[in-house]
Amino acid sequence: MKIAIIGVGNLGYSIAVGILNQKKDISCKSLYLSKRDLSSLSRLEKISVVKLTSDNKRAVKYSDVIIIAVLPAQLKNILEEIKDEINPKKHTIISVATGRKIKEIETILDEKTPIIRAMPNTAISVGQSMTCLSANENGHAKMHQAKTIFNALGQTLCIDEKHMQAATVICASGIAFWMRLIRATTQGAVQLGFHSEEAQQLSMQTCLGAARLLIDSQSHPEQEIDKVTTPSGCTIEGLNEMEHNGLSSSLIRGLVASYEKINEI
Ligand SMILES: NC(=O)c1ccc[n+]([C@@H]2O[C@H](COP(=O)([O-])OP(=O)(O)OC[C@H]3O[C@@H](n4cnc5c(N)ncnc54)[C@H](OP(=O)(O)O)[C@@H]3O)[C@@H](O)[C@H]2O)c1
């Protein structure tokens, strides 16, 4: 694949680094990185497949997969700028702009253009993103390209576009929700006598272990909870106290509040 990333900020940069670290899986012949101020990309300058440019049209011309990672408000201008360079038979457009629908992109580009909407999260920088993907009619035939890129940077799930806002809350905002849970359990561990670094290590690895247990054993969370809740023991005592204070309910209500907000924006 010849890949271009237009807009190489937080997310675009993480995708670029991920692609460069996964060259075996992705087989990237060239990687055009385009932004107006290139100074933040100087570290990537010497890598042979990397071409730095501020010319978005040039990046499109010499690539076949175009990942657009600009802010939602900047997307329309970028599409207007590159539309004459887009050849629907050659190019696949992958947009990661939050909240920008495939239909909005189709109204600017030729509707035959394969368009894929992707919603990754910031764990993409460590190759652990959960990325949801949707496509227009022609985009389905090119979905393998998006999967190749984002599977090398974590996991992907193809979803109906109508679920994209919900996926944004669960996966992209979800990083913040899980961080707060890790932070809270770290604070609890400090109160129980651990130094903060040790406390965070205990919290992070326990969180990672819980997820890994479910992934590897393919069991249900309640099955794993049953294994550690001795009758009349300390785990069920703590868990029930958390539930009396609304743990599950407050998490679900938080997700729903985020979802309602994202639909207003
Ligand atoms: N961060 C997340 O967790 C996350 C998750 C999923 C999706 N998203 C979405 O991903 C997109 C990017 O987010 P971000 O956090 O990476 O934003 P960001 O850091 O602001 O990056 C945007 C980049 O676009 C570049 N840019 C602006 N105008 C341009 C132009 N005309 N031509 C070329 N490049 C241009 C900017 O660089 P210059 O100013 O140098 O041009 C900047 O590097 C957003 O739409 C966001 O909603 C983010």
What order do the helices and strands come in, and which of them pair?
Blueprint: E1 2-6, H1 10-21, H2 23-26, E2 30-34, E3 50-53, H3 56-61, E4 65-68, H4 72-82, E5 92-95, H5 102-108, E6 115-119, E7 129-135, H6 143-151, E8 154-158, H7 164-191, H8 196-217, H9 221-228, H10 234-244, H11 247-264
Parallel strand pairs: 1-2, 1-4, 2-3, 4-5, 5-6, 7-8
Antiparallel strand pairs: 6-7
Helix pairs in contact: 7-8, 7-11
Bound molecules: NADP nicotinamide-adenine-dinucleotide phosphate (NAP).
Any overview of this molecule?
- This protein is an alpha/beta fold and 265 residues long.
- Helix content is 51%, strand content 15%.
- It has an 8-stranded mixed β-sheet with strand order 3-2-1-4-5-6-7-8, with helices on both faces.
- α7 packs across α8 and α7 packs antiparallel against α11.
- The longest helix is centred in the last third of the chain and has 28 residues.
- The structure holds NADP nicotinamide-adenine-dinucleotide phosphate.
- The site of NADP nicotinamide-adenine-dinucleotide phosphate has 26 residues, from α1 and α4.
